Amino acid sequence: MASNVEAPESWYLALLGFAEHFRTSSPPKIRLCVHCLQAVFQFKPPQRVEARTHLQLGSVLYHHTKNSELARSHLEKAWLISQQIPQFEDVKFEAASLLSELYCQQQLHTLEKDLVSACDLLGVGAEYARVVGSEYTRALFLLSKGMLLLMERKLGEVHPLLTLCGTIVENWQGNPIQKESLRVFFLVLQVTHYLDAGQVKSVKPCLKQLQQCIQTISTLHDDEILPSNPADLFHWLPKEHMCVLVYLVTVMHSMQAGYLEKAQKYTDKALMQLEKLKMLDSSPILSTFQVILLEHIIMCRLVTGHKATALQEISQVCQLCQQSPRLFTNHAAQLHTLLGLYCISVNCMDNAEAQFTAALRVSDLTTHQELWAFIVTNLASVYIREGNRHQELYSLLERINPDHNFPVSSHCLRAAAFYIRGLLSFFQGRYNEAKRFLRETLKMSNAEDLNRLTACSLVLLGHIFYVLGNHRESNNMVVPAMQLASKIPDMSVQLWSSALLKDLNKALGNTIDAHEAAQMHQNFSQQLLQDHIAACSLPEHNLISWTDGPPPGQFQAQNGPTTSLASLL
C-alpha cells in the first residue's frame, strides 16, 4: 500500500468508492458501506476529510439504520469539526440540517410519553451546548429537561437542576430579550412547581418576579444585535406567546387561591390576546393555551354561579378538541372532569359519577397524578351525597388518605382530602371526628391562603356547631365564611351560609339580622335557580350523557330543566 506521503488521497478515494458501491447495491449492503467509511479514520485523515466522513457516516446511519445514537454522534462530530475549518459551509450546514431532523424525530419521545428518553436527549443537548460554548442554549435544554422532570414528579432531581439553571440564567450576559426569555422560562417552572404542590402563598414572590419580567420583555425591541455564537440562535417562545403564558399561570394561581374575579380578568385578557395571535399564527401551542385557559375559567364560572356560561365554554373546548385529535387525547380527562363538576352543580349525580369514572378511565396516571387525585376527591363527594355507595366510597377514601401515604405532594389536594373526610363524618353524625378533620383543613388552607377551602370548612364547622346547639360558636364560624365567600365569590357557600345565618339569628333572637339573612338567602336562591334553568335548557346540556369516544358535534335542544335545586344545601 502506498504511503500517506506519496498518495495522500488514494486510500480515501478507494474507500469512498467502495462505500458508495455497497450503498447503491441492490439490495444495499449498509454494513459493508459503514465498515469502509469507518476505515478512513485509521489513516488519521486531515480535518476536512475527517469532518466529511463523519457526515457521510451519520447520513448513512440516519437514513438506512435504526442506530440513531451512533448517527447523532457522527453528525455532531461533523458539525463540531466543521466549525474549526474556514469556508467549509457545505459540511457544516448539511450536518446541522440532518441533526435538526434527527432531534425533531427523537423529541417525539415527549409526544409519545417516553419522558425518560426525552430527558436523556435533552441532557445530551445541554452537554453539547456546553461543549460549543453556548450557555444560553444549554439553559434552554436544562429548563426543558426540568419541565419533563416536573411532569414525572422527580422532585429530587428538579431542585438541583432549577438551582443550576438559576445560576446560569443570572450569570449569562447576552441579548437582553434572550436573557429575559430565559428568566421567564425559569420562573414559569418555579411557579408551576409551587402550584403543583398547592403552595399558593409560597409562590407569590416568584409570581411577582415573573410578572415584572414579562413587563420588561414588552419594553424591549426585537431588533437587538444578533448573538455572535450560532448556537445561541434558538428562541424559546415569541414574547407575545410568553405574555399569554404568564397570564395563564396567573389565572392558575388566582383559581387556587380563590381570587376568582382576578382569574376572570386575566383570562379575558389572555383570550383576547390569543384571538389576535390566532389570526396571524396557526401554532398548535395557541390552541393548547386556549383550552387550558377555558378549563380554568369554566371551574371559575361553576363556583361563581354562571353554569350556563360554563356549559357553553365546555362546548367550546369540545369544538377545539374536535379540530385536533392530539389536543383531545391530552385533554379528554379534563373535559370529562369539567362535565362532572357541572353535573354536581345541577344535581345530576348519576351523570357526575359517570363523567368522573370516564375521566379516570382516560387519564394518564404517570403524568397527571394531581388530576387523578382531584377526580377521585370529587367522585368521593358524589358518593357521600348519594348516601348509598359505601363500598365504592371507602375504596376511594383509602386511596386518598391524608393521614397516611397521600398519593401526591399537593398541599391543596391533601387539605381537600381532609375536608372530604370531614364532610363524610358530618353526614354520618360523627361530629367530633368531623371537627378534627375540618380543623386540619383549616390549618392547611390558612397556611397557604386557600380561600375556597377555608370558606367551605368554616361553613361546615358552623353547621356542626349549630346542630350541636352551640349557636355562638356556630356564628363565629359562619360569619367569616360568608365574608370570605362574598369576596371569592362562591355562590354555593353564600347560599349555605345565608341559610345558617337566618336560622342562627332566629335562634339567638336577632329578628332584624334573621330577616336580612333570609332576604340574602332568597336572592341567592333566585340567582341560582335562574342560572340552573338557563343551563339545563341549553342544547349543550346533553353533553352530560357523553362518556365515550370523541365529543359529539351536534346537540339537540332541551325541553326544560330535568333537575331541581332541592339538594343544593
From TrEMBL:
Q: Which UniProt keywords apply?
A: Cell cycle, Cell division, Chromosome partition, Mitosis, Nucleus
Tell me any Pfam family this protein matches.
Cohesin_load
Q: Which InterPro entries match?
A: MAU2, TPR-like_helical_dom_sf
At the top level of its lineage, which domain of life is listed? Answer: Eukaryota
Q: In the record, which residues are listed under signal peptide?
A: none
Q: PANTHER family given for it?
A: MAU2 CHROMATID COHESION FACTOR HOMOLOG (PTHR21394)
Gene name of the record: LOC120054752
A biological process from GO: chromosome segregation
Descriptive protein name: MAU2 chromatid cohesion factor homolog
> Which cellular component, as a GO term, is one annotated location?
nucleoplasm
Polar residues: compositionally biased ranges = 555-569
